[in-house]
Amino acid sequence: MSFKGTSTYVTAAVVTAGAVGGAYCAYHLYKKSQKPKLPTEWTEVGHLKDLYAYPIKSCAPIILNQAVVTTLGLKDGWMRDRILMVVDEKNNFITARAYPEMLLVQPEILTSTNPSPILTLNHPQMEPVSVNLAEVTNTQKPKPAVVWGVQVPVYDCGWEASEWFSRLLDRTATSFRLVYYASSQSRALRPSTNEIYKFTKDDTGALPDEVPYNLINEASVEDLDHRVSDCRVRPQNFRPNFVLAGAKAYDEDYWKFVKIGDNIFEIIKPCFRCILTTIDPETGVRHEKQEPLETLKTYRQSDDPAARRSAGTAPRMGLQMALRSAPGGVIAKNDRIYVA
């Protein structure tokens, strides 16, 4: 590349520097404008009664005493929330909505007695099977799978886990595969995600339906339980990460932020509930009258017209949240919970 004179070069450099500097400033002003202003005043509403993580999407939870918060969700060593899932022959994710038996799959991740993280799958009607997750990440190349229409990179967890899930779910040998999320970044947003709610690019987590953190108010669940006559309703019906004890029923409708210990979360949206709530998490049996969902529909529809158009008749119960304080903080059972 040549220049006709030094003055031309200097002028071009100054103009370029000015343009780059202006773009840099504009970018950072834009980024700053996207970050929510965090509250400085908080009201205590209760404490963290229970803490759950679900390593495999749609399978049984692991009960935790404490965990580290990350943008992808809860973490305890190699254990991460919704970091694995089951896919079909077309690499589309499947859930307990269609395969209720998945709710009885109890994952266990052992690291204390073995230098490698070992995932063991347990089910009342199946022999246990184990997968070495470190070996999976070291020997497999990422391949694409799909969650709610969004392509995500995953590692295949191997033939033994595939045969195990296939025999459990449809008695064949190769219909389903267990896969492990192959990125340290949140998955991409669905194109329609921000039509109503304000998600950022870090708010989708690894493999949850929408966001990495879900909180349920125990008092709201108890109120629903009193309204339903022929089944027992528990927080576990709603698959939360956090169970709040001590607040008043449905007070969560009016909160914008939640602080657990020193960790701050922004409420992105209410959690609109589906038929998964009608499957008993302990037996995997659907309720014949679609309870507690049908009762919930009678009094917990959204009042917001745009949200109602998006959610249809799905009722609200619980909060969908994203981390707004720095990753790496620790959350523990009995932590005080504050709201703003």
Automatic annotation (TrEMBL):
One of its GO terms (molecular function) is catalytic activity. The gene is LOC112047209. It comes from Bicyclus anynana. It comes from the Eukaryota. Residues 186-340 form the MOSC domain. This is Mitochondrial amidoxime-reducing component 1 isoform X2.
